[in-house]
Design brief:
The complex is a heterodimer of chains A (157) and B (93).
Chain A (H helix, E strand, L loop, with lengths): L3 H10 L2 H28 L18 H10 L5 H22 L7 H19 L4 H19 L1 H8 L1
Chain B lengths: L8 H18 L7 H15 L7 E6 L4 E6 L4 E6 L5 E6 L1
Antiparallel strand pairs in B: 1-2, 2-3, 3-4
Chain lengths: 157, 93
């Protein structure tokens, strides 16, 4: 058996031509590894909410989340009213989008939805950990339902 | 005793005002741009985190749920959401 030290020594003794050949052989492997890592980079889109603590039952409806928000003691009445108004605005814009009557693109609506959930998260993350956990887990699930025409119309018509 | 004269001044035009308001509300179509909505939301978030801003002059969306925000107060913030769904912000003047 050759030890690791000996391998390193041998690699230094390898002629330059061999090292160049080695680099040429390895380059497709490196390129392939980079190519394979692309889906990982694309998946990073969901990274901000990938470490949510688990919950027993996932919330799948923005309305349920709004109801839970209305019942929490972590948020003041004024903030609850303001958030409720924001939720209704986002739902109205999504409704207009699904009716083909929106000036916003789906990407813009997703950004508005994310900002709405960020506003909710700020109030919950230090004061109502259970609801914050629900919000974290529901973040993507709810958006998938909102963006889908059939799911949206089923829940909000 | 004060008598209200409904035939003159503001009261004469009151039905017209009411009708206009109802009509405007019915025909209301959102005029706010996406950019204005994002700026307003970012300002609410900064305020909620207890940091000064005044007004969001500009922002850069740096990836999913990450924003660099430039405020009228001269403050600059980086807003992000961590994997646990916690909203955090770092700032510099």
């Amino acid at each position: 058996m050759i030890s690791a030290k000996e391998v390193i020594k041998l690699s230094y003794r390898t002629p330059l031509v061999s090292r160049t050949k080695l680099a040429c052989c390895l380059s497709p492997v490196i390129l392939m590894a980079l190519f394979l890592s692309l889906p990982v980079i694309a998946h990073d889109r969901n990274a901000p909410r990938s470490g949510c603590p688990p919950v027993e039952e996932e919330i799948i409806d923005l309305q349920i989340l709004a109801d839970m928000l209305a019942n929490t003691k972590a948020v003041s009445l004024f903030t609850k009213l303001s958030l409720k108004k924001d939720i209704n605005k986002v739902l109205k814009r999504l409704n207009q989008f699904h009716d083909g009557n929106s000036k916003f693109t789906l990407e813009q609506l997703e950004e508005q939805y994310n900002l709405l959930l960020m506003k909710m998260a700020i109030h919950l993350q230090d004061n109502d950990l259970v609801l914050h956990r629900h919000l974290c887990n529901a973040w993507l699930v709810i958006w998938e339902d909102l963006r889908d025409f059939d799911s949206f119309k089923e829940q909000h018509s | 005793m004060i008598r209200l004269n409904f035939s003159t001044g503001l009261f004469r035009n009151l039905p017209l005002f009411v009708l206009s308001a109802v009509g405007a509300a019915a025909c209301e179509r959102e005029r706010t741009s996406h950019d204005d909505i994002v700026k307003a939301d970012l300002l609410v978030i900064i305020d909620s985190l207890g940091s000064p801003c005044g007004e969001v002059l500009e922002y850069q969306n740096s990836g999913e749920l990450g924003y660099t925000i430039y405020c009228k107060s001269g403050d600059e913030y980086f807003l992000s959401v961590d994997p646990q769904g916690r909203v955090g912000m770092e700032g510099r003047k």
